[in-house]
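wait is this the right file?? whatever heres the structure
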């Protein structure tokens, strides 16, 4: 075995692969296995992230279904609609001025029909 370079050095050279490194079959197989294991771990993490996103989307869909398809607004949506801050919106909730629904994750939602009725009453 002669002239073996670590894999990291191979990546930093500007020479073709064949000119950079003479490698025996076992070392090459080990390097390929290391790369394969790294990619498998990466894809497993990605799969877990996608599963998490999918669960959250299902939860949001279930919340919309349980409210008979009425459009739901979150804090950001309602703040923009009413031209108020999130703190003002929280104050409205605490005072009972505005009806809301809290999801399992602690996020507040508002039915658009409730907000329409509230705005019409306030005139």
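ok assuming it is, sequence goes like this
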């Amino acid at each position: 075995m002669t002239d073996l370079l670590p894999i990291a050095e191979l990546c930093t050279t500007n020479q073709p692969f064949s000119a950079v490194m003479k490698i025996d079959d076992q070392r090459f197989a080990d390097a390929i296995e290391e790369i394969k294991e790294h990619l498998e771990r990466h894809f497993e993490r990605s799969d877990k992230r996608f599963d998490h996103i999918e669960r959250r989307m299902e939860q949001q869909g279930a919340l919309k279904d349980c409210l008979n398809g009425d459009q739901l607004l979150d804090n950001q949506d309602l703040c923009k609609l009413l031209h108020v801050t999130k703190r003002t919106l929280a104050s409205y909730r605490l005072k009972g001025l505005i009806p809301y629904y809290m999801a399992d994750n602690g996020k507040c939602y508002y039915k658009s029909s409730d907000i329409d009725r509230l705005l019409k009453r306030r005139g």
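The mean pLDDT is 79. so i think its the right one actually
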